[in-house]
Design goal:
With 395 residues, the chain is α+β, with helices and mostly antiparallel strands. 48% of the residues lie in helices and 9% in strands. The protein has a six-stranded mixed β-sheet, sandwiched between helices. The protein has a three-stranded antiparallel β-sheet with strand order 5-11-10.
Amino acid sequence: MQTLDLSPRDPQFVQNPYAAYDTARNRGPVLYWKQYGMAAVFDAASVRALLRDRRLGREAPAGTGTDAPPHLAAFHAVEAHSMLELEPPRHTRLRGLVLRAFTSRRIAGLGPDIAAVADELITALPCDAPFDLVSAYCTELPVRIIARLLGVPEDMAPDLLRWSHDMVAMYQARRGREIEHRANAAAAEFTAFLRDYIEHRRDRPGDDLISHLIAAREEDGARLSTDEMIGTCILLLNAGHEATVHSLGNAVKCLLEHDTPLEALAPDRVAATVEELLRYDPPLHMFTRHVYEDVNAGGETLRAGSEVALMLGAACRDPARFADPHVFDPARTPAPHEAFGGGPHFCIGAPLARLEMQIALPRLFDALPGLRLAEAPRYADSYHFHKLDRLMLQA
């Protein structure tokens, strides 16, 4: 297997990883990424197949030396009950119970809330000075919606954001000891809050996700444990919120840089435009798996006991799957992409993220049709996320 020697913190790569993906795909499409110490898969066909291959999974095999160090005990206590880190049968049971509460009807019912929060945030944007859309709109909208969904007070939003940011930083290439300590503290605080709030909701149930998670039962009567509910709520905030924030930021940047006609956000076209935005510049570029049995991919053998990086961002720009993949075309006929992963671990919050984008983008541009960039956007040093720390705009 050929070796890829490329720092994920290289400034040129951070700003445009897609050129490197093309080079890697042409050399590979499976290369040993030196900086990560694992194979990385860059072509869409292999990524799509491996996301669905049960010979790979998120859960670390027993005896692989993955015990949590003491300074990360609280963080790993959450991870131990997170669907994202589990495989069947526990994953199947947890996801089934969560889907009984996190229904498509419940998600669709959030539409009026999304529109109302979007309008409120847009009204508060300054008309006579540049502003950062990421902090003022892209971040605030999904955290307020997830607070309403969970049933926690909206004035908890600053705490939810802090906990989410500190925990999600663990998945970035710049992770270090300071980040680990902050993540562990955030996990401990978030867990303590949710443990108390879940008990409160047991006595005073409402029409919210936590109450419905408490009530959800399997056919044999089994329910989610408190630790499983805590892991689920944290996952929904951390994964769902972060993805929507950065999908919105990347989307507005893309629409403005391409002078996209507002017709692309019309009611009959916005869904297709959102899919193209997600494909063109997705917020998550890498998703790792453990290899349980030897697997052939892209002409290489992935050995049992190893890990592999599935390059979602590269798959979304593979010319074998998408014609002119580096062209943003809102009129493109939607085709399956891997922006939300795939297989058993397909993002459970994808329907909510799509709905938020389909509502938030048209309302923003309808209200501010003269919106323009106030400075050249730059991506953050946060790989394997591909996101903007800020997006300075002028109304």
